[in-house]
Design brief:
It is a multi-pass membrane protein. Its main location: membrane. This is NfeD-like C-terminal domain-containing protein. Keywords: Membrane, Transmembrane, Transmembrane helix. It is found in: Membrane. By secondary structure, the chain is an alpha+beta fold. The chain folds into two domains: 74 residues, no CATH class; 58 residues, Nucleic acid-binding proteins (OB fold (Dihydrolipoamide Acetyltransferase, E2P), Beta Barrel), CATH 2.40.50.140. Helices cover 43% and strands 21% of the residues. It contains three helices and five strands; from the N terminus they run H-H-H-E-E-E-E-E. A five-stranded mixed barrel has the order 1-2-3-5-4. Strand 1 and strand 2 form a beta hairpin. The protein is elongated and about 60 Å long.
Length: 141
């Protein structure tokens, strides 16, 4: 069975996610998945080659381009999208508890969120930290 199309879809999804986030975290993984797709297409009988090539390609791209991306992030005027929502206000759309993630809207964006206390639907919150997928929020009193 040919698996090249799975690698291709993974690569496309990673590149699209990179374009949406603009963080350089997913770009190299998307390129690595594309390399794996090409190798899986050219050598369909070799099942170990694509994952090995994706792993090596991703690792090498990350290692050799880290100084470039670090310099880009330090350039004047660059705003890391991973930290753009910090200090912005939002609204709880799905309840949050210390043991369960909830959903918040910040501006026009919908995010998963965590908090140190229970927050109900409609509660106004302030974003105090942001990871790639989850916001940390506190209530606005």
């Amino acid at each position: 069975m040919d698996f090249w199309w799975l690698w291709l879809i993974a690569g496309i999804l990673l590149l699209v996610a990179e374009m949406i986030t603009g963080t350089f975290y997913l770009l190299w993984l998307g390129v690595a998945a594309m390399v794996a797709a090409v190798l899986a297409y050219l050598f369909p009988e070799n099942y170990l080659l694509p994952p090995a090539a994706a792993s090596v390609t991703g690792l090498l791209l990350i290692l050799f381009t880290k100084p470039l991306t670090t310099r880009l992030r330090q350039a004047r005027g660059y705003a890391d999208p991973a930290h753009q929502l910090t200090n912005k206000e939002g609204e709880v759309l799905e309840p949050i508890s210390p043991t369960r993630l909830g959903i918040v809207r910040v501006g026009t964006e919908i995010w998963s969120a965590s908090a140190q206390e229970d927050l109900e639907i409609g509660q106004r919150v302030l974003v105090v930290a942001q990871s790639s997928t989850v916001l940390k929020v506190v209530p606005i009193k």
